[in-house]
Amino acid sequence: MLTLVANRFYASALMGHPRVPRPGVSLALGGGFARGYAHLGVLLTFQQHGIPVTSVAGSSIGSILGAAYASGTPLPKIMEKCREIRFRDFARWRVSRFGLASNERLGALVQKFFGSRQFEDLRLPLAVVATDLGTGDPVVFRQGNLAEAIRASCAFPGLFEPIQIGTRCLADGGLVAPVPTRAAQEMGAGIVVGVSVAMHDGHRGAPTNIFQVVSRAVSAAQKHQLEGWEGYADLVLRPSVQGLAWDDFEKIDEAVEAGSVVARSAIPKIKQLLDRRSEKESTFGMQGEVLLAESLR
């Protein structure tokens, strides 16, 4: 089921979820195929340093790893399973007029690995962002079928066929939300931390295949979206993964380490932001108690 609230820029399935700030971090995980394994390094470091993650929003690979974490699956187990995954595990080549491959296998992979079929089964609030190819708007899933939402969010144009859900034709969420910070903010949290692993393959010169053509075109368009998504983040982390190709899934350790390095450097800042938020909430709480006491006189 998808509930939408639309404005000029956004279509968001957030009805029934009040925007009440909760202490902790709302983590926004961006797209980037194999580079996205850096998200695991960020999550691992946050866990080691006691940084509370209270909600997660994800686009593309960020939606997969975000869902895995939100399901309550221990990080070591997630990393173990990711080491086994290759492109063939979630894609099936079948050239059509809509794409080079289908990501039907991804749906089965999600159910097998996470043990969660619905958003409602997850232990943490999760938002998955996809792109409506009919309107060009973001569509944010917060409830209903988890596998379908993730398949839509990962349907990179030209490579994967778009996903039809209801009357909507949906594609990769990274097209409109390279790092889904707005979705993360709208779930309510102490602070919003975005993790950007970028889309460009890191190589200069002319592209050598159709995927590089499409990914570089998307990357070029995303450069002009920085002000849009960065404005919703309290902090943005950028793991150094430019040397990894989109399909370097076997280099998970390199990506995880890059995520860990940038996260460790940000721990003092994050703790400072959380402390400030706690102080503000304590002040507002005291003011509320005073007002309540005065109203009862």
Feature tags:
single chain, ten-stranded mixed sheet, 9 helices, alpha/beta, 13 strands, disordered N terminus, three-stranded mixed sheet
Task: Describe what you observe in this structure.
This protein has 297 residues and is of the alpha/beta class. The protein has nine helices and 13 strands. The strands form two sheets. Strands 1, 2, 3, 4, 7, 8, 10, 11, 12 and 13 form a ten-stranded mixed beta sheet that branches. A three-stranded mixed beta sheet has the order 5-6-9, with helices on one face. The longest helix is centred in the C-terminal third of the chain and has 44 residues, at 252-295. The protein is globular and about 45 Å long.
Helix content: 25-40%
* Secondary-structure content class: alpha/beta
Can you count the beta strands? 13
Q: What string gives the helices and strands in order?
A: EEEHEHHEEHEEHEEEHEHHEH
Residue share in β-strands: 15-25%
- Give start-end ranges of low-pLDDT stretches: 1-20, 284-293
Q: What is the average per-residue confidence, as pLDDT, rounded to a whole number? A: 78
Oligomer: single chain
Radius of gyration: 19 Å
| Number of separate helices | 9
Q: Kindly report how far apart the N and C termini lie.
A: 48 Å
Secondary structure topology:
Layout: E1 5-6, E2 11-12, E3 25-29, H1 38-48, E4 53-59, H2 61-70, H3 75-84, E5 92-93, E6 99-102, H4 104-114, E7 126-132, E8 138-141, H5 146-153, E9 158-160, E10 163-165, E11 168-172, H6 181-186, E12 191-195, H7 210-222, H8 226-230, E13 235-237, H9 252-295
Parallel strand pairs: 2-8, 3-4, 3-12, 4-7, 6-9, 12-13
Antiparallel strand pairs: 1-2, 5-6, 7-8, 7-11, 10-11
